[in-house]
Amino acid sequence: MPQTQIIEKIKQTKIVPVVVLNSVEETLPKMQALINGGLPCAEITFRTPCAAEAIALTVKKFPEMLVGAGTVINREQCEKAIAAGSKFIVSPGFSEEVADCCKAHDMLYLPGVVTPTEAMAAIAKGLTTLKFFPVSNYGGLKTIKAICAAFPYLQIMPTGGISADNILEYLAYDKIIACGGSWMMSGTPKEIEEKTRAAVKLVK
Ligand code: 3PG
């Protein structure tokens, strides 16, 4: 799928659940809960060793889901995420080697930034859709607006400290394409489904 289409899908879902899986067995119940709650999208993070396997399993069982890889910090993880079937790659910060790897695979890369210097490093690699992380520690919406004033062509996906309490404030700003967050991912699959459904209702 072309990168522009992936960005369009991210815009439509408005929320990108940030998922940490402690074992591959957790994958399908949690992904099913997201789907049941109306949010067929997930950023499965490389914070745990089962990430690539979990992504591959999700892609196989739920091909309609928009599955990306998060916390990708080097080329090796990036290659594994792409081989597993990830549709986009996210990093907490900006990584030149991940940017190069994504470019070689024509893969959408959302590097994390919080400063103009980091935004410029990403822009120099041709990247204009960026994660802003951790947004609540780095000035919130006010900082995003100040940075976008200098780089008006940027599209931003803020994450870090976003929840049902503040997501609407972020989504109201037109440079923000979606918000990432883990607030719906705690508890049992039933609880995940309920929190997801509430989140979807809130943003639609
Ligand atoms: C991320 O990597 O995007 C964050 O861990 C998500 O932040 P949150 O847990 O505060 O939602």
Structure description:
With 204 residues, the chain is of the alpha/beta class. The chain has helices at 3-13, 27-36, 51-61, 75-84, 96-104, 116-124, 140-150, 167-171, 189-203; strands at residues 15-19, 41-45, 66-70, 88-90, 108-110, 112-113, 129-132, 155-158, 179-181. The strands form three sheets. Strands 3-2-1-9 form a four-stranded parallel sheet, sandwiched between helices. A three-stranded parallel sheet has the order 6-7-8. Helix 5 links the parallel strand 4 (88-90) and strand 5. It is globular, with a radius of gyration of 16 Å. The two termini are 25 Å apart. The model has no long low-confidence stretch (mean pLDDT 98).
Strand proportion: 15-25%
Largest sheet: 4 strands, parallel
Small molecules in complex: 3-phosphoglyceric acid
User: What gross morphology would you assign?
Assistant: globular
Count of individual beta strands: 9
Proportion in helices: 40-55%
Integer average pLDDT: 98
Low-confidence parts lasting 5 or more residues at pLDDT below 50?
none
